[in-house]
Amino acid sequence: MKREVQVKGGTLLIREAVPDDAERIIEYINVVVGESDNLGFDPGEFKTGVDEERKILANYLEADNMVYLVGFMEDERVAIANFSSSKRPRRRHTGEFGMSVKKAYWRRGIGQTMLEALIEWAKGTGIIRKMILRVVTYNTAAICLYEKFGFKRVGIITRDLMIHGEFVDTILMGLEID
Ligand SMILES: CC(C)(COP(=O)(O)OP(=O)(O)OC[C@H]1O[C@@H](n2cnc3c(N)ncnc32)[C@H](O)[C@@H]1OP(=O)(O)O)[C@@H](O)C(=O)NCCC(=O)NCCS
Question: Which residue's CA is the nearest one to ligand 1's atom 41?
Answer without folding.
Answer: 100
